[in-house]
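Subject: sequence -> structure tokens, single chain

Hey, anyone have a minute? Need the predicted structure for the following. Not urgent.
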Amino acid sequence: MTADAARLPAPAAAPAAPGALRMLARRSGTVLMPLGFAVSVLLLWEFLVRFYAVPTVILPAPSVVWARILSAWPFLLTHLVPTTVETVVGFLLSMILGTTLATFLVYGRRFREAVYPTVVFFQLIPKIALAPLFIVWLGIGSESRLAFSVFISFFPVVIATMAGLRAVPPDMLRLCRSLTATEAQVFAAVRFPYALPYIFSGMKIAVTFAMIGVIVGEFITAQAGLGYLILFASSQAETPLILASIATLCVIGLVLYGAVALAEKAMLRWYGSA
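Reply:
Had a minute. Here:
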């Protein structure tokens, strides 16, 4: 039996699990499909501009915009820094203000009845129309841009946080009360973990709104920043530089959005493992 067993062929390696292959294909698709669509749009743009000989001042080809980015990169980098810093600071302030206000609105019924209608009313006002008022109130420095950025970006955080704090199953709250848990313990161990997906959904919207607020402020008052650069390039009919600045803004927005998404995964993993 031992000799016969020795002559038997070695067992073949086990094939990869279908679930793992399916997951790998799904993850690759989430990256390759958007990338392929973007490349297709850029190639179509390049072809149409060159085929119809569209003047560069009206619509430059993507290759022209890329060449302008490379040639003006030190200049773009100089203006990129203040825009990014003010966007991050405005987003962080809106996140702190939004979550704090939402917590008070959820826990204080009288406070909610008095304050929430006013918050909604201010959000119904066209925000661009209020930008000059922030300049009058706070001057032409970064304070007015930060205040305007916070003003237009904190509301999504408020709404999302309120929805998350209210999304806790009633049975879970009754269990906490039966265990004589305090409100602070319920908030830290139950309400806040349940609200995390909602909070990060609001933060993903707020980070884009924060950038919009900074750019609008730079259109009006700044002497530096990508918003100022776009306005300056438009006055010089520098369409490639305008699109180069917009492309740089898109990259910043994607990086900030990705940072929020990574923070969401880390927080959910932390609370899930706990």
